[in-house]
Structure formats: structure tokens, C-alpha cells
Design goal:
20 strands; 6-stranded mixed beta sheet; Rossmann fold; 7-stranded mixed beta sheet; globular; about 400 residues; about 25% strand; Transcription Regulator spoIIAA; Archaeosine Trna-guanine Transglycosylase, Chain: A, domain 4
Length: about 400
Amino acid sequence: MQTLILKSGRERSLINRHPWVFSGAVKELPQAQNGEIIRVVDNHNNLLGFGFFSTNSQITCRVFEFTNEEILINADFWVNKILSAYHLRKQLIDFSHTNIFRLLHAEGDFLPGVIIDIYATVAVVQILIRGTENIKENIFDALRQIGFKHIYVKTKSNTQRLEDVTTPCGWVGEPCEMPVEATENGIKFLVDVETGQKTGFFIDQRESRKLLGEFSKNKKVLNTFSYSGGFSLYALEGGATLVHSVDSSKDAIEMCERNVKLNYPATTNHESFVADVFDYLKNTEVDYDVMVLDPPAFAKNSRAVANAARGYKNLNLIAFKKIKPGGMIFTFSCSQHIDRDLFRKIVFSAAADAKRNVRVIRQLTQPDDHPINIFHPEGEYLKGLMLYVE
């Protein structure tokens, strides 16, 4: 096995179990192929751990095992990591009411470069780096052992990915007809893992959707960037008198309508709109009691932070001006490059410009099945605030 040697003094982050080795910390590169498993040692040749080597990223190595002892890394090693993640989910989730969940959350489950989302009998595997592509058959074996019949691989397009992942999107073994019907907290959703955004659904908002439902009784609710209607369905379930779903995607709105009919075929309390959210907010005359602001990531990289901050501020500023007195705003950022403090400052600035009294009722984040490795704070990507606007 090839070895990567760190520069003197650059081992501290690995001693503290941060899983990323950046190129600037490397004294001597291994003679290894992209994605190959390598040893990582300090400048005195003390073993620190094992990781996936990358030739195409500033993150030269992603460490998956911290140890000062040589270990056997075989098929059982990878299967056991995934089974361990599944056993944790069994403790966190009531599978009798929810079969939509994240089974494996990359660094949050000590396996960088792979995400696995579950929709009923379908497991969607996102392969993000060549290292996990090399062990994909072990990943599939683990999923079969757990009992998932249908496995779909979903990789990013060539224009999106930084790593040299060559596996195409597609079914591994038996395909499943799309969309699949799955359940979250007793609410049914149709999910298309082949054509849907991310892995087909935004699983990370499960707890925030549930919270919104608890505050929706007899309320008028606006769900912006609504996608397939997650927040909208919880608002209807919670007893909202009016729910409006707004998204610029016609396909997303069509799926939202299907989900509403699947759960509430006779309801007259829901209406959806294909529209630009900013334009809709500026022009609407409805006095909404509750607004959901859950946009896509405005900052895809660190260079986009300034423009993203302006986007988040403008969105929240319009909402603060429009929400009725005594209303609630659920506002989010899923941009990893916008940290919690910056997001809160952006929302503060919008509230100040709107000249409204605003109180933070609750801090919101990703659910339990998106665990955050305490040594890898970058895994806490979803930030949210539940706000009361006087």
C-alpha cells in the first residue's frame, strides 16, 4: 500500500480526526492511482490512518479510518461500515411511519465520498469520488444484505463533478418503476429517483416540515421553492385553511399536485403556481400567516458567497415586508459555504431593513439521519430559523 507523508507540523488536524488532507499539507505524494487506498503518516513516519487518494482535487486524501495500527481493509470492512450506519438509523427512525431516510451520510458516517438515501424498497447511491467508486460492489452487497431490492446509482454530471467518477447513472440489478411511493411521518410522497433533484427528494427537511405542520392549523401558508410539495403537504395535514406552492419548475409543480391528490384527493385548500419566487412574493396580495423560504443553494463554491448573501437577503427582505403581523417565517440556507453565523447575520440585516420586530423562535438544522461528524463541522450544511414577525 502506498504512503502519503505530511509536512512537519501539519498532522494536527488528523490527530484531531478531521478527515480531509489538503494538498498544501503534503510533503511527499504516494505513487498511487486516483481513488487508491493509501496510508497517511506524519513527517516521522508515524501512521495516522487510511484514506482515499485523489489526483484531481485540492483534497488530496479523504481519511476513512484513523488508527496507528495496520488493519485489514477488505469487503467485510466496508459492509460493516454500512451496516453500522443502518443500525443507527433503526434507533433514530420509526420505520412503521417513515421509510424515507438517509442511510449513509458520507463523513457523518465515517465513509467519505458516498451518500445513500432510501425510498421504501429503493436505495439511491450517490458516488462522489473515485475511491468509493472502486468499492461500489461492496456497497451494493451491504444494501442487498439489509434487504433493499432496487439500487439506483446517481452520479453528478460531468460539468458538476470535480472527481473522475465514471459510473453512469442507472439501476444495479432489478429496476423499479418510477415514481416510487414512500412514506414520511405517515404522509405519502411520490419520488422519482431517476429524474428528481438530488436523490429524488429533500430528506433533510423532515423535522422542519413536521414543525411547520404543528403551526399550520387555521393558517394561510406559502411554500416557496416548493419542489414536490413537502412543506405543503405537512401544512395541509396540520389543518391549514389555505396552502400555496410556488416553484419555477413545471415538472416540480406537477409532482406537487400529484402528491396533494395522493394524500388529500378532495381538498380545495391547495393551489400551486409555476412562477419565479421573487416575482411572486413581490406581487402577491395574499396575507399569509406562514411562509417557507427554502431556496436551492445560492453558493455552490466559496467564490459565490457574496452574491449568495445578497440573494438570501433580498429573499428574506421581501418576505419580512409581506408577512402579516404575527406571522411565522421558516427560512433556510443549504449552502455549505454560508455558515450558521453568516446566515443569521444576513437574516438580521434583512429584518433591520424591513423595520420589523423579529424574534428567533427556534434554530433549525438537518435531521438525525444526517449526522454531523464532530471532527468535521463542514457536514452541518443546513441552516434554518423559525422566526416570529410582529
